[in-house]
Amino acid sequence: WKQSVTASPSVASRWLVDPDMIVSQGQNRVTVAFAGGFGSKPSSPKSKKKSNKKKRKLSDDDLLSTPPPKPKAQSISHTSDGPQLDKWGLPIPTQDEMFPPMPEGTELIAAPTDKDVTLEDIRSAMKDHLKLNYDAFDDLGVERNPLPGNKPMKLQLLHQSPPVLSIENFFTSDECSKVKTLVVPDATGNDASNGDSVLQVNSATFSPLAQSQRTSTTWFCHYAQMPTLLAKATHIIKKPQHHMEEPQIVQYRTGE
């Protein structure tokens, strides 16, 4: 804007210091004009109308009016050319991923029932799989040196190919009770959680059209809560603990 003011030449000379001002002196009247930036446009009633018009756009009526509809977010739960995704954008596990099919050419061979299974039978079934600490067991798969007061563990071959094993007397009765109190306190209200809570999740339930379904409740435990389990497992399979998943407790109720 331009502004005419009455000033002395000394005042005008001080204003000349600002490079954004153009100062002209006529007798005792000084005309000041800004070269650019704020206030560079001439003031006129028209500009006020524009200003008022802008204010009307921000009136209460405009603020209370219905906002324009937001664009619909693209759903990530399903894509036409890819797998279904969960709310974190990860693929939802399928039944085949939970229960992967066996490799082609896998022979289905049941465990022998006409004779006692020996340690050599177990070693032969496991040769292409996990190597166990066979030195800890005798020829019949019975633990050689059980802990004092414990029954000896015994390896059982439930299925030859693919191999399925069970271990009798892996836990004592007291050890089982202590693990159970991690999720269900005993009659005295004591628990073995050491102040750390376990994470409870419900196992996946598959469609009624699926050939196999499983429902259960699972608790994920801290490693420090299951020292006996980890120590015995490490002794038998000869693998370090950082190769193991978090210990889990699974509960199956009637009908599950």
Can you give a write-up of this model?
This protein has about 260 residues and is of the alpha+beta class. It is built from seven helices and nine strands; from the N terminus they run E-H-E-E-H-H-H-E-H-E-E-H-E-E-H-E. Strands 1-3-2 form a three-stranded antiparallel beta sheet, with helices on one face. It has a three-stranded antiparallel beta sheet with strand order 4-5-6, with helices on one face. A hairpin with a 2-residue loop joins strand 2 and strand 3 (about 30-35). Residues about 1-25, about 30-40 and about 75-80 have low confidence and may be disordered.
Summarize the structure.
With 256 residues, the protein is an alpha+beta fold. It has helices at residues 9-15, 45-57, 60-64, 95-98, 119-125, 173-180, 227-237; strands spanning 2-6, 21-26, 29-34, 109-110, 154-161, 164-168, 199-202, 217-220, 248-251. The chain has a 3-stranded antiparallel β-sheet, with helices on one face. A 3-stranded antiparallel β-sheet has the order 4-5-6, with helices on one face.
